[in-house]
Amino acid sequence: MSLRPDATEPRHPIQVVARRTGLSADVLRAWERRFGVVEPGRSATGRRRYSDADVVRLALLGSLTREGWSIGQVAHLPNADLRAMAGAAPPPPPPPRASGPSVEQFVTDAFDAVRRYDATALDAHLWRAVVTLSPADFFDRVLGPLLTQIGSRWRAGELRPASEHIATAVIRRILGRIADAVDSSDAARRVVVGTPAGQLHDIGALLVAASAAGEGWAVTYLGADLPAEEVAAAARRTGACLVALSIVHPADDPAVPAELQRLRDRLPPEVEVVIGGAAAEAYAATIRASGATLLSNLDGFRAHLRAVARTRADKTA
Ligand code: B12
Hints:
single chain; alpha/beta; Multidrug-efflux Transporter Regulator, Chain: A, Domain 2; Methyltransferase, Methionine Synthase (B12-binding Domains), Chain A, domain 1; Rossmann fold; 3 domains; five-stranded parallel beta sheet; globular; binds cobalamin
C-alpha cells in the first residue's frame, strides 16, 4: 500500500493515534522513548504530531505485539517485514535468564552490608537489584522487606541508629537516581510528592516518586515535613493534578487531621490527594473526611495513576 506524498506530514495528535492504533498514549511515548519506533513532529506548543506513515507503522507494531511478539523483537524491523510477519506465530519466549541473585538474596546481601556499615557494598547490591529486577519488584520485594528488617532489628537493639542512617542515605540516593533517570519533560501529568508536617520519614515518599516517574508522570518531590500551605502552593504553581503524601510515623499525631483539611481547602477542587504509608491506616477516617484517597500499597498507586491518566486522556480526546 503506497502512502500519499504528504504521508510524512505531522498532523495527528497523540489521542487520535492512540484510538487508531489501539495503543495507549503512555505506550506510544514509551515505545518512542525506549525504541525510537517513530519520531513524531511537534506542534507550536510542543505537542506530538504524528504523520500518516507513523500511524501505519504503529498500527503494524500494535497488531504484532497483540499477537504475542515483544516490542523489543519487532521495533527495529521495516514495515515490509512487519507486514510479512502479520499472522505468523511469534517465536517461543526465550528461556528464563539464569542471571542474578534471587530477590531474597538481594535483601540478605544488602542487610549484611548495613550491619557492616558498608555503604559502598550496600549501594552496589541495591543498584544491581535495580538493573536486574522490575521497578515493582525492587520497590516492593527488596526495599520494603529490607527497611522493615532494618526497623525491627533496630527496635530489637541489634542494629545501631548509625547503621539505619547509613542505609537511609544510600537508599535515598538510589531512589533519587531512579526518579532522575526518567525523562518526563513532556509528561502530560504531574504529581506533587512529600510527607505532611510532623512526618520525618520520607523513604516511602521517595518510593512513590520513583513509582510515578516509572509510570511516565512528571514528579515534583518536596521531601519531608511540609506544612499544608506549602504543599498546596507547589501543586498550584506546577499545575499538578495529583498530590501524594506518605505517612509512616507517628501514627497518632493530633495535628494531622487539621493539616489534611487545610491542604484540601487550599487545593483547586480538581486536584486529588492520595495518601499511603505504614501509619496511614491509623488516620483512615481523617483521610476520608478530608476527601483524600487512602492507598495501601505501590501496586494500588500505579493502578491509580493509570486510571487517572486514562480518565484525563478521555476528557481531552
Ligand atoms: C528509615 C527509618 C528511619 C530513618 C528515616 C530516614 C528518612 N529520611 O526517612 C531515621 C533513622 C531518621 C528514623 C528515625 C526514627 N524512627 Co524510624 N524507621 C525507619 C525504617 C527503618 C524505615 C521507614 C520507611 O522508610 N518506611 C517506608 C516504607 C518503606 O515502608 P511503608 O511505610 O510500609 O510503605 C510501603 C507502602 O505503604 C507504600 N507507601 C509508603 N508511602 C506511601 C504513600 C502513598 C501515597 C502510597 C500510595 C503508598 C505508600 O510503599 C512502601 C513500600 O511498599 C522503619 C522500619 C519500618 N518497618 O518501616 C523505622 C520506624 C518507622 N521508625 C521508628 C521510630 C520509632 C523512629 C524514631 C522515633 C526513633 C528514635 N527514637 O529516634 C525516629 C523518629 C524520627 C521522627 N520524628 O519521625 C519506628 C516507628 C514505630 C511505630 N510504629 O510507630 C519504626 C517502625 C521502627 C520500628 N520497627 O520500631 N527512622
